[in-house]
Amino acid sequence: MTLAAATNEHLANISNTLIYSAMAVYTLAFFAYILEWLFGSRSKVGRTAAALTADARGAKAPAVTVRRNGGTAVLERPEVVVRSAAGARDVPDGPGAHGGDEQGDLYGRIAVSLTVLAFAVELAGVIARAASVERAPWGNMYEFNITFSTVAVGVYLALLTLRKNVRWLGLFLTTTVLLDLGLAVTVLYTASDQLVPALHSYWLYIHVSTAIFCGAVFYVGAVATILYLFKDGYETKLAGGGTPGRFANSVLDRLPSAASLDKFSYRVNAAVFPLWTFTIIAGAIWAGDAWGRYWGWDPKETWSFITWVAYAGYLHARATAGWKGRKAAYLALIAFGCWLFNYYGVNIFVSGKHSYAGV
Amino acid sequence: MSKTTAPTDPTGEQELAEAGSQLSTAPDESAPQLPALGVVGWARWFWRQLTSMRVALLLLLLLALAAIPGSLIPQTGTDATKVAAFRSAHTTLGPVYERLGLFHVYSSVWFSAIYILLFVSLIGCIVPRTWQFVGQVRSRPPGAPRRLTRLPAYTTWRTEASPEQVREAALALLNKRRFRAHTAGDAVAAEKGYLREIGNLAFHVALIVLLVAFGWGQLFKSEGNKLVVEGDGFSNTLTQYDDFKSGSLFTSDDLVPFSFHLDKFTGTYEMTGPNRGTARTFQAALTYSEGAYGKDKKTIVKVNHPLEIGDAKVYLTAHGYAPVMTVRDGKGDVVYRDAVPLLPLDNNVTSTGVVKVMDGYRNARGVTEQLGIKAFFYPTFGGAGTEAGSRFPALLNPLLNLEPYHGDLGVDSGIPQSVYQLDKTHMKDFKDAKGLQVRGNLKPGETLTLPGGAGSVTYEGTRQWANFQVVQEPGGGWALAGALTAIFGLAASLFIQRRRVWVRAVPGDDGVTVVEMAGLGRSESAKVPEELGDLAGLLYERAPGAPEPDPDPAVSPDPDPHVVPAEGAEQQ
Ligand code: HEM
Predict the structure, then answer these.
(1) Which terminus of chain B is more solvent-facing, meaning fewer CB atoms within 10 Å of its CB: N or C?
(2) Which chain A residues contact residue B479 at CB under 8 A?
């Protein structure tokens, strides 16, 4: 018994060391991303401006061109021509943080490699923590935070692996991951402990793991939404003949077009919404087993419901009310705000059945 | 060959709109019109507004907003004592909140109004959409627009195969890919992804099922608590409950008949480490029988594992200790012997309660009196001189502290009294020889003798008690079915794209067939051109490309300069 306790304490210490190491590596990645952006600023592409001012002058850039092979050549396979919907701005996606600069690109690659390393170290830290407490590492807010940031970075890396154009997210992500971990190790730290019997259920694994995953994906969506708002403002300004500041020019020009960012955040949010629905239902089933009612308007339940309704409103707005663009984006941000409040606010400010050991 | 363009629709916008029409059942949002005069006009106008997407969205957001106060202000439904505390702390705000229904937000008039409106709107939306969808399924996908080049995804090539062959191959291919396809004129029109619409409708219907099931459950719900000491039993009738709440349509006949007997309660705790004292298991071993004369069965009820009998679920919600005490009067006759459940005060189960000896007791002078004995219990006593409070939740070193009083308990005054509290207004304490109040710290088996031959109290041993919550909430199955349908419907609605494909094959000037393919989705998506490319590739194998003719500058350019379709397209 004491021997086991000693091993557990040992594991808990290893976990702490790993989490601190992950923070160090994330910091390095953070600086590498900064360098990527800095070197990228050397190349002044001005693609967005070019595309938009060409539009403004009325000389519409050709939306599509069909390349013809030589006169008598037979096509290998017919080529599909894509055109965007009428009225859409035809702004090309920015080149990414490195802005086409070779050195910038190199730092970007280093940053991604460091992110992978930091992710691996942090994951090991989470697993060590789980081993030390002999259960899923989701018993208190410290554990939520370390798991949450691991999953968020995991989602980012998974998107990169799928060859999605998301490297521009890196800097924003590492910044917030560092904040999240900083908060975890300073304010929220809880020595490893056991769960109260109410948490002994396989529903813990189902409900909490999906909740954390949904949060991580919603977070990625929210970052893209914020960037969309900036980029959209930037494009609107350019199209209206305005001249954005140098900083905005340099940074925003390198991001994907507002349309792409908007589409990306919509896809991300829409993709996890069914899972979020499932998370709430799983929670209700668990509550039915643990507390004798599947829905009781406990603050945590209420805020999950509010978050759900807010995201449903967002999807609804886009699907039916024709609220595309900025209005829908604000809704998406409000919805994510609800999620955040549910995660931090409810645990800290409101007491309910969901409050367990050490916040 | 002539390149004619319809004069009435020079840009082809209208035709394009038709090609994309009915690709969903979402209604058009037109600006609100002023209602026609008269009641009917106004009613129709109101109904239109209510079932419009804008209002639906507004109601949805309003519902989210309205749910907020209930999470911040204490609610009678979840914690009535907190509400009472809030009321006494905020004497001005309390009554205002009360009037606004802020202490029971989720059953308040305004909250109900929002969701009832939302669901009326929902029904008003689903019914026409369902009809429309049935109509769409029974009709065929619209024919190809004249100028396929304007669609979001487009491809073209020339082939030696005849137009009929191409169309036949295209029809076969699209059918095989599970498109609904038919040939209309010189083109094949096809559509796929109807499941998206079904999913969307199923999702919205499921929301209604979910709400109705939840509402039904609330109306017929019942919830009662019963504290049972080891060795005692319970049968499910109204009178046996310690407290009982029920929905407005519940009647006592709805109680599922069953009974059980608590054989043993087991609690184990972490013995070492930083979490010493944290509970590891709580379980109650029961013998129960269903119905009035059911067979006895054994079961274990744990946290997270209720006992289910019909619609009723029996949950284990709390536990504690019940010291067994024997009280003797001055003559040595036993006037009381029972296990007295005490209420836990902290995590280490320091407990408190009162033994009330109502009748049968006579004091040293033979006068009938009542006894009230305040009890504190420490399952693990820390030792003399230590700060009050148990050190551990398990029975490691039990100690019972007693403080006896005699006189009139006041239970006959008609004012309801808590069994755990002692009203000392008509009670007097016992004094020892030195004039100090008599108190006793007893270990199991020890006896506290009351001064002056007033009798004695013996602590015989300890039993445990468990609190059971019995809940009946019908409609849970329906709610679950609704919820699961909602998830699948939602997934279908969000992940399936409804799209159309057209394949046109016409003879070109030089007798070579020109094939044009175009795709259109409900929303702009990279999947549509991708799929079109796949389909084109497959069709291309059946109708391989013919050599391109030399570019012929005599052919007038297409009015749409962005796309150059293959020679001879856009005919007819
Ligand atoms: C009870 C609250 C409601 C919720 C949570 C809800 C949720 C949703 C969601 C998440 C979508 C998006 C699915 C997609 O993008 O395809 C959607 C679509 C839709 N909803 Fe609702 N909805 C609600 C009420 C309503 C009401 C009251 C109406 C009608 C007045 C309505 C009509 C529609 C329509 C027409 C669509 C789009 C169908 C399409 O795109 O083809 N919904 N709803």
Answers:
(1) C
(2) 294
Do residues B307 and B411 share a domain? Answer: yes
CA distance A27 to chain B (A): 33
Q: How far is CA B547 from the centre of its chain?
A: 64
Has residue B473 got a pLDDT over 70?
A: yes
Please state, in angstroms and rounded to a whole number, the distance separating the CA atoms of residues B451 and B438. 8
- Residue B2, pLDDT > 50, answer no
Is B47 within a domain? yes
pLDDT given at position B559? 42
- Please check the confidence at residue B572 and state whether its pLDDT lies above 70: no
* Window A:222-251, CB contacts with B under 8 Å: none
Provide the token pair at B221.
């719900």
Residue B565 maps to a domain? no
A317 in contact with ligand 1, CB cutoff 6 A: no
For residue B223 the two structure tokens come to 């919830």
Which residues of A fall within a CB distance of 8 Å from B471?
Answer: 292-293
B204 lines ligand 1 (CB under 6 A): yes
CB B504 near ligand 1, within 6 Å: no
Could you tell me which residue, A341 or B382, shows the higher pLDDT? A341
pLDDT at position A241 = 78
A218 close to A271: Cβ distance less than 8 angstroms: no
Q: Quick: pLDDT tens for A207-223.
A: 989 999 999 999 999 99
Residue A138 covered by a domain:
yes
Beta bridge partners of B300: B285
Structural domain containing residue B344 = 222-472
| Confidence band of A109 (pLDDT split at 50, 70, 90) | very high
For B154, the token pair is: 């487009």
Asked if A180 and A302 sit in the same domain, the reply is no
Distance (angstroms) between ligand 1 centre and the Cα of B57 equals 9
Cα angle for residues B86, B92, B96 (degrees, 5° grid): 85
Range of the domain at A21: 7-50+91-194
Local structure of B330: helix, strand or coil:
coil
Residue B397 lies in a domain: yes
State whether residue B368 is helix, strand or coil.
strand
Do both B534 and B396 map to the same domain? no
pTM equals 0.83
Can you tell me the ipTM of this complex? 0.86
